[in-house]
Design goal:
The complex is a heterodimer.
Chain A lengths: L16 H52 L1 E4 L3 E5 L3 H7 L2 H33 L5 H7 L2 H4 L2 H12 L5 H8 L11 H29 L3 H9 L4 H12 L1 H15 L4 H4 L16 H11 L3 H32 L4
Antiparallel strand pairs in A: 1-2
Chain B lengths: L3 H15 L24 E8 L5 H10 L3 E8 L2 H14 L6 E5 L3 H5 L19 H6 L9 E3 L1 E2 L2 E6 H6 L6 H8 L3 H14 L4 E3 L2 H9 L19 H16 L11 H6 L5 E7 H10 L6 E4 L12 E4 L7 H11 L2 H11 L2 E2 L2 H5 L1 H4 L11 H10 L11 H18 L4 H13 L2
Parallel strand pairs in B: 1-2, 1-3, 7-8
Antiparallel strand pairs in B: 3-10, 4-10, 5-11, 6-8, 6-9
The chains are: A mainly alpha, B alpha/beta.
């Protein structure tokens, strides 16, 4: 490397001592610059993300913690310092624990079927179909629709007395489902909206991963006498492992923050009269904007953050196990 | 029906959430009255309303009278939604309309933030409204934060055709005679009706009926000094039990929640036969029951007179065109315009001159079988004896109460006793 080369002192020449001195200096300086360049530029190149994150992620995070230690009114602003009082209050609220339960229930009802369905759809799309691109684009259509619009459309289907689903059920002589009264039914309905939006998107991610699986593996499996289904279970799914992990993690982060679909599930937007489908983010909304109590809302926001961190850690540990099972470190 | 306002309110909310509750702070400022030129520059004024204010035609008229003004109407579906929207943007310090409609029930909580609203006191509107209407929007130091639009004197709207089928008297006078009396009398008539009819309920929802009853109690949830008494007030508990007894045990309710999709759709079937209706509800019934014949309105209200709702127009100080906005608000709430709004959507005037006008008293409503709605609602307004006190906690407490009723009446997740317990917890958490 040029920077480590010693500068050769030229043979003594009494004619231009000054200029020679200068050129040595200049050379030294430019070497310094290139040294900095090598050392610092990588940091500069990645800095935009971190600067943005500090402004839009880290600062709000810390500021929320600060707010949660005070009484703080939405419109009136900062009140007195109360320490952990907001946390104590919130943890004693039945609605908080109810929201935690609902969040996990909706999350599981939406994530598990979503991943299974997405793999199945991807497998179908991976087969030799006519008009491949058309089908592949088709599964992405629901993703383009705004979540609130999805909510409004599905509300017409899920209305308890006037909804299409219940019309069909009663038409078949069955009992109508009480979508807006029964917790589990409401969770199913909301999970349906979430799945409607995200399944196609995840299917495309799986499809991309499937296309990367070398075809000779399948050829070998065929020669060994494996059928279609056996190939799918023993070749495709194991090869998709890293992608499945990725999809599960992103679905977790999104799933624990479900808000839009649940909020537009009825007019009042609070999650039902008995809070049958109030998620944690909706509870934050109710405290912060309904009761205008930002201190308590921030406390819940931080608790949600901690829950997500815990789940992410668990995810990380599980992924490490799975990855090491593959014999790679 | 679902306006864009809902979606924007939601996205604003989501944006605020995404910012993890930070950037939503606000600085208050002292504000004097509204100063400034009007009628010179071209302006676009946005007006935020909810439900049916009956302003659509008036806006067109105002634009013709004032060529420099373009009006942009933002309509929220419900009062709760309008309140959420207002709160969010008030806190954000921007994004409110130049004129924001607010409802009586959540006006008291806004008085605390009177510095966020322009002082609309003006000699020109001195004595325009009924005393109580103006007093409710006046702060202790004499600032007027809103111009009254309508009041909500309540009558009983009913389906004459279903009454006839069940063998009850169906003309206005006889119905008024039959329902004259206390609430128990209204419920007893309902039992008769339900026994004789084919699966039609007597009223739409426990919550809506409760609303009529609680508005006849002077201090339901708060004492004059603002102390919350909701959970120890025997009157509240009695009304709660009485309305649930009628709704669930006697089967008089159609088990709907007001404003929900099912409720809106139920107007198209014979789900219920009566509905307590303040003036502003007439336009909503007419809209939801399009194509259904048989609605009528009787000059009667159980338990004496009652008022439900009524609104105001406010001008947030964050607006850029306050002088023009004030001019428009003043014009919209003038008696002659309020009467036009009444013709359009049944929003009954709260303006003194409006109440005495022959136009109002001669007003009939074609949808309600040509009933003299002007005269009926004026009589109902005169029958009001109690002016309920509503403090800053009124709205959230009443909201918690509505949810308590819904749990029993619609969701059936609770019995009256356990739902009451949850209500007590919810009020304690405010």
């Amino acid at each position: 490397m040029a920077v480590t080369d010693r500068v050769q002192t030229p043979p003594p020449n009494t004619n231009q001592p000054a200029s020679r001195d200068k050129s040595v200096k200049r050379l030294a300086f430019s070497q310094k610059v290139s040294k900095w360049d090598v050392k610092l530029s990588p940091y500069l190149y990645i800095s935009p993300f971190f600067v943005l994150f500090a402004i839009t992620g880290l600062f709000p995070l810390l500021y929320t913690a600060w707010v949660s230690l005070h009484t703080w009114n939405l419109i009136g602003g900062q009140g007195k310092f109360t320490g952990l009082e907001n946390y104590e209050f919130v943890l004693a609220q039945p609605f908080f624990w109810n929201a935690v339960g609902n969040t996990f229930s909706i999350f599981l009802l939406s994530s598990v079927p979503q991943v299974v369905l997405a793999i199945a759809i991807a497998a179908v799309l991976d087969a030799n179909l006519r008009a491949k691109t058309f089908w592949r684009m088709g599964v992405l259509v629901p993703f383009v629709v705004a979540p609130v619009a999805v909510g409004l459309i599905f509300n017409n289907l899920f209305a308890d007395q006037a909804g299409l689903f219940n019309e069909v059920l009663t038409g078949m002589g069955l009992d109508p489902v009480r979508w807006h009264s029964d917790s589990l039914a409401s969770h199913t309905a909301i999970a349906t909206m979430v799945n409607f939006r995200w399944t196609g998107y995840n299917a495309l991610i799986f499809l991309a991963a499937m296309q990367a699986i070398p075809r000779d593996v399948y050829e070998a499996a065929t020669i060994d006498g494996a059928g279609r289904l056996r190939q799918f279970v023993s070749v495709t799914v194991p090869m998709l492992r890293p992608t499945i992990i990725f999809v599960v993690i992103t679905a977790t982060i999104g799933g624990l923050q479900i808000f839009d679909e649940a909020r537009v599930f009825d007019q009042a937007g609070l999650g039902g009269a008995d809070r049958q489908w109030q998620t944690l983010t909706m509870y934050i909304w109710e405290l912060g904007w309904g009761q205008r109590n930002f201190g308590r809302a921030s406390a819940v926001a931080w608790l949600l953050f901690l829950i997500i961190v815990l789940i992410a850690m668990a995810n990380f540990l599980i992924t490490r196990r799975i990855a090491s099972q593959g014999g790679r470190r | 029906m679902h306006s864009r306002a809902r979606i924007t309110a939601l996205s604003a909310a989501a944006a605020c959430l995404a910012l993890a509750l930070t950037a939503c702070g606000s600085g208050g400022s002292d504000n004097a009255g509204v100063e400034g030129e009007t009628g010179t520059e071209d302006v676009t004024l946005s007006v935020g309303t909810f439900n049916e204010f009956g302003y659509e035609e008036l806006f067109t008229e105002y634009e013709e009278l004032n060529p420099n003004v373009t009006i942009e109407h933002k309509k929220a579906a419900t009062s709760n939604e309008a309140r959420d929207n207002l709160t969010t943007r008030l806190a954000a310090g921007s994004g409110l309309s130049d004129i924001e409609g607010i409802e009586m029930d959540w006006l008291p909580e806004l008085l605390e933030y009177s510095d966020q609203f322009a002082d609309l006191k003006d000699p020109a509107v001195e004595g325009r409204w009924l005393d109580w209407k103006e007093a409710a929007a006046t702060t202790e130091d004499g600032q007027l934060i809103g111009y009254g639009t309508d009041a909500g004197p309540e009558a009983v709207c009913y389906r004459a055709d279903l009454f006839e089928k069940a063998g009850l008297p169906s003309d206005r006078e006889s119905v008024a005679k039959m329902l004259e009396g206390d609430w128990q009398n209204y419920f007893d008539a309902g039992k008769k009706f339900v026994a004789a009819s084919d699966g039609t309920a007597w009223f739409d929802s426990a919550g809506a009926t409760y609303q009529g009853m609680i508005n006849q109690v002077e201090n339901a949830y708060e004492d004059k000094d603002g102390t919350v008494i909701a959970t120890d007030n025997a009157d509240v508990k009695d009304i709660y039990e009485q309305v649930l007894q009628a709704s669930v045990d006697d089967g008089l309710s159609a088990h709907l929640t007001q404003w929900e999709d099912d409720w809106t759709a139920s107007f198209q079937s014979d789900a219920f036969a009566t509905k307590l209706c303040p003036g502003w509800m007439l336009g909503i019934i007419e809209g939801n029951a399009k194509g259904i014949d048989g609605w009528d309105i009787a000059d009667v209200f159980p338990g004496g007179g009652g008022n439900w709702g009524g609104s105001y127009l406010t001008i947030p100080t964050q607006g850029a065109h306050q002088a023009e906005a004030k001019k428009l608000a003043e014009w919209l709430t003038a008696p002659e315009q309020q009467i036009k709004a009444f013709e359009s959507k049944g929003t009954f005037p709260s303006q003194v001159e409006g109440l005495e006008s022959d136009t109002l008293l001669g007003q009939t409503n074609a949808f309600f079988n040509d009933a003299p709605t002007g005269e009926i609602l004026a009589n109902r307004a005169n029958a009001i004896e109690v002016r309920p006190f509503k403090g800053p906690k009124y709205f959230p407490i009443n909201d918690a109460m509505q949810q308590a009723l819904t749990r029993v009446d619609v969701d059936k997740t609770d019995d009256p006793a356990s739902s009451w317990e949850k209500f007590v917890t919810a009020v304690g958490a405010l």
